[in-house]
Amino acid sequence: MAHPFNGTTFSFTGAAGVGFAFRLKSWSSSGGERPDIDTTGASNTRRETLPGMMSTVSYTFECVYDKASLADDQALIDWLNARLNECDKGTLTFTIKETCSTTETPFSGTGWLINFDTSAALDESINLSLTFLMDD
After folding, report:
1. What is the C-alpha to C-alpha distance for residues 78 and 112, in angstroms, rounded to an integer?
2. Which class for 77: exposed (0-12), middle (13-18), buried (19 or more C-beta within 10 A)?
3. When you count CB atoms within 10 A of the terminal residue's CB, does the N or C end of the chain come out lower?
4. pLDDT tens, position by position, 38-63
5. Distance CA 129, CA 61 (A)
């Protein structure tokens, strides 16, 4: 059986209020950068720029879903496929267990599932890579 990453859990609840919980292995974020917009004119002696609009933030979560917790593996895949087609955003929640402590720090946000990849493991777990486009 796969083990959770330092006690960290992750769940995603779709717009209809139905969700799944996962044991989190790792996560990463991208976006939030401000591009340079070139405003250099013909009369300038050096390049001039202004900061542009911030790019959209996305999170990618590497998760483990215990096969024993789901009677039908296809139900999870079908549920994720349905989330890809939702227009309304869902709610992401992940809880980080502090090292050597019982205190947990919750994080919650809203966003859309925009990609997922699956792979199976011999320890009867399903490994998932879930990418979400976050709502500000």
Report:
1. 16
2. middle
3. C
4. 999 999 999 999 999 998 888 888 88
5. 6
